[in-house]
Specification:
Blueprint: E1 2-10, H1 15-23, H2 27-35, E2 38-46, E3 49-56, H3 61-70, H4 72-81, E4 85-86, E5 98-99
Antiparallel strand pairs: 1-3, 1-4, 1-5, 2-3
Amino acid sequence: MRRFATVIRLRPEKESEYRSLHADVWPGVQAALKQAHIANYSIFLRDGLLFSYLEYTGADYAADTAAIAADPVTRRWWELTDPCQQPLDSAAPGEWWVPAEEVFHLD
């Protein structure tokens, strides 16, 4: 199992919309994530920053995340959620959710 954490900014004027969307995540989106071997996926919010954590149990993360990105239901979901988000200033061009470095893990 591999752990991943990423960060992005939440547009303050979109917080209510973002919360509403995630209060009832579409079953097709959840199914695509599970099919891609993603578990224990959480998104946290603090001071305008969204922090995500997930555990990946598959063998080919690149292929599995590409399958998520190709899923039509997930793509429609992102059309709603992406306008709520804003990449961090430190994000590379084209980068959306940026990886967070793990500096401690209690095993």
